[in-house]
Amino acid sequence: MPHLVLDSLSADYGRDPVLSDVGLSVERGEIVSIIGPSGSGKSTLLRVLVGLLRPRAGTVAVAGTPVDYGSDAALRKVRERFAIVFQQYNLFQNMTALRNVTVAPTVVKGRPAGEVEAEARALLAKVGLSHRVEAYPDELSGGQQQRVAIARALALKPDILLLDEVTSALDPELVSEVLDTIRLLAADGMTMLIVSHEMAFVREISSKVVFMADGRVVETGPPAQIFDAPQTERCADFVRRILRH
Ligand SMILES: Nc1ncnc2c1ncn2[C@@H]1O[C@H](COP(=O)(O)OP(=O)(O)O)[C@@H](O)[C@H]1O
Ligand SMILES: [Mg+2]
């Protein structure tokens, strides 16, 4: 059974449809990347999954269980399924790296502080920051802050991690340390949906690439298909343009 199944998902911000009839199936441990022109609905799709925007129609299922986006109580459960990391890491500036990672599990979920702290230290070690646990965000580089943000997302023990352009705000020399962290998570078997402009990375890490345009999935396939032999003119045109520069 696929780990994540989206069926006929549609969403909007009140007027025109922004996602139309989106379908996708993701196996456990699979890395799926979503590419497409600006405004094609990539961020909106991740926002719907994590419960920031209610779907207008369609269904999402994780491990065969439908995800309920219908009420605030249900949305709290959604946060146990999905965690999201954004381009802007948005750490709490007045908290250390360690506290940024422990605050949601302890305050929101009410888990025991000692246990959560031990997990948070392990997560910060995983993202290569065991020496910076007591640092405040303004003492960390962008790449380090983004790695704290990834640790913070993982502290919620999501089934599926959503990454929305997590390297787009970084200075070029800091991109690779964040990509290395994502590679580590992939090797651990984390199921991930990734929106990224780092096409070489997308090609390397993804088992499947989804090309979206105008709120629809236009083409889905392995990286070799999407980048070397796209089946649709729309995808071929996009790939030609992004790979040219
Ligand atoms: N908060 C919002 N309110 C209204 N329209 C939005 C909002 N966010 C995004 N949109 C619109 O939804 C469409 C898809 O946007 P988005 O999901 O951000 O695309 P992408 O991430 O692929 O660039 C765009 O037309 C965008 O203008
Ligand atoms: Mg976006």
From TrEMBL:
Source species: Prosthecodimorpha hirschii
GO MF term set: ABC-type amino acid transporter activity; ATP binding; ATP hydrolysis activity
GO cellular component: plasma membrane
Alphabetic keyword roster: Amino-acid transport, ATP-binding, Cell membrane, Membrane, Nucleotide-binding, Transport
The keyword Cell membrane is annotated on this UniProt entry: yes
Gene3D superfamilies on file: P-loop containing nucleotide triphosphate hydrolases (3.40.50.300)
Topological relation to the membrane, as annotated: Peripheral membrane protein
Pfam families hit by this protein: ABC_tran
Family in the record: Belongs to the ABC transporter superfamily.
Upper lineage: Bacteria, Pseudomonadati, Pseudomonadota, Alphaproteobacteria, Hyphomicrobiales
Subcellular location field: Cell membrane
Domain ABC transporter: from-to ranges: 4-239
Name of protein: Peptide ABC transporter ATP-binding protein
Keyword set includes Transport: yes
Main location: membrane
